[in-house]
Automatic annotation (TrEMBL), chains A, B:
Matches recorded under Pfam families: GerE, Response_reg
Keyword Membrane applies: no
Domain HTH luxR-type: residue ranges: 142-207
Residues of the Response regulatory domain: 4-120
SMART domains per the UniProt record, alphabetical: HTH_LUXR, REC
Record-given protein name: Response regulator transcription factor
Species of origin: Kribbella antibiotica
DNA sequence: CCTGATCTCAACCCCAGGGTTGAGGCTTGG
DNA sequence: CCAAGCCTCAACCCTGGGGTTGAGATCAGG
């Protein structure tokens, strides 16, 4: 039985190219084509395809949002994302939103067909580059960026990120609370933070917690 | 031109099964079969195949180590890993070592063939489960474990994690500051938090930020 | 040896944030 | 239809957090 596919891309050339290309592949039926994200979701609702092949950058509703909607509302439809640049910011977002596959636009017909078949089967095909970045992200995590903070300020920041109060931090570092406040004021100024909530976020982004 | 494959699995049944199964697939040539990791590496050296299909658990040299050796010494040979359990500890290790694809042993013939073709092509096919875990690891996926927070409370928590003040949150959500404070009090009680600093840490741990 | 950076501390002010109580409107499901 | 949960808002209190100023002690480096 053939895999039923909806294609979504705002560029007519790409869209039509994909449709004709996919029609030549055995085992794949293109049932509809959308020119933006909103239309894509609507066509998925209408046709309930096995796979949605969607571009990341589109007007109205972008690929990430379309993916999220499709995956939550029509979970039997798998999503394969197609993009021009594999280093696009939104690649990870798309994967998190539930995209099954990931292709760059220089993929050939077999590669695209394979990704669609795989997605319909519950497997996941990733562009090599994307996979590499995923693995790096998953394994090699923190690079503890420095930010001109003194060691002591970093200590304090870490404890703030653990949710400790000033008195608790003072006890922990065996200094007075006044000292803690001083350090905090300094690091707030350096890092341009307003309060400890922002400091916690900052610490997490720095990889300190 | 056919993809040349070396198979490696210590269990004779599995190994022979794979070989006969792969021989039935068009576009795939099995050129050799190894019964442990050391032999696998040796056969790769000898035949320089396009793809090595290797089991994770094997005597002498395990799948991870075999992958690493093959990828460093014979980089033109891609590696597809086959394992019984997708939650195996060494899955990530294998991927880090350079494995291109990842299959569980309940994959059917087409799935295996697809993975091999994809690997030979520079793509990467992952078992659905493995992909999910990769993404979670890489981007702290939103694990729907919301600990009983209401949607609105989650909204507020997210904004707290962005470092916004109550008045800013109120503006952003188009409600009064009193409402924001109510939500905050509720979520603090539910999640056992003392102040917004702890809330930020909590949000990050939940993957909301 | 002086300078600058860091760490330490104190006293003060002010207010955003957090706790509490109470209450009205809105869906939803039994 | 009523109960329950959620979202909304108000008024009050009070503490901890954050801003500011100022200052002594130590230490590395020019």
């Amino acid at each position: 039985m053939s895999v039923r596919v909806v294609v979504a891309d705002d560029q007519r050339v790409v869209r039509d190219g994909l449709v004709t290309l996919l029609k030549l592949l055995p085992g794949i039926d293109v049932v509809a084509a959308a020119s933006d994200g909103a239309e894509a979701v609507q066509l998925v609702a209408e046709h309930r395809p096995d796979v949605l092949l969607v571009d990341l950058r589109m007007p109205n509703v972008d690929g990430v949002e379309a993916t999220r909607q499709v995956r939550t509302e029509y979970p039997q439809t798998e999503v394969v994302v197609l993009t021009t640049y594999s280093d696009d910011e939104s690649v990870l977002s798309a994967l998190r939103a539930g995209a099954r596959g990931f292709l760059t636009k220089d993929a050939d017909a077999e590669a695209i067909g394979r990704a669609i078949q795989a997605a319909a089967d519950g497997q996941s095909i990733l562009d090599a580059d994307v996979q590499r970045r995923l693995i790096e992200g998953a394994v090699a995590a923190p690079k503890a960026v420095d930010s001109g903070l003194t060691p002591r300020e970093v200590d304090v920041l870490r404890l703030i990120a653990e949710g400790l109060s000033n008195t608790e931090i003072a006890r922990r570092l065996v200094v007075s609370e006044a000292t803690v406040k001083t350090h905090i004021n300094h690091l707030f100024a350096k890092a341009n933070l307003r309060d400890r909530a922002q400091a916690v976020a900052y610490a997490y982004r720095l990889g300190l917690a």
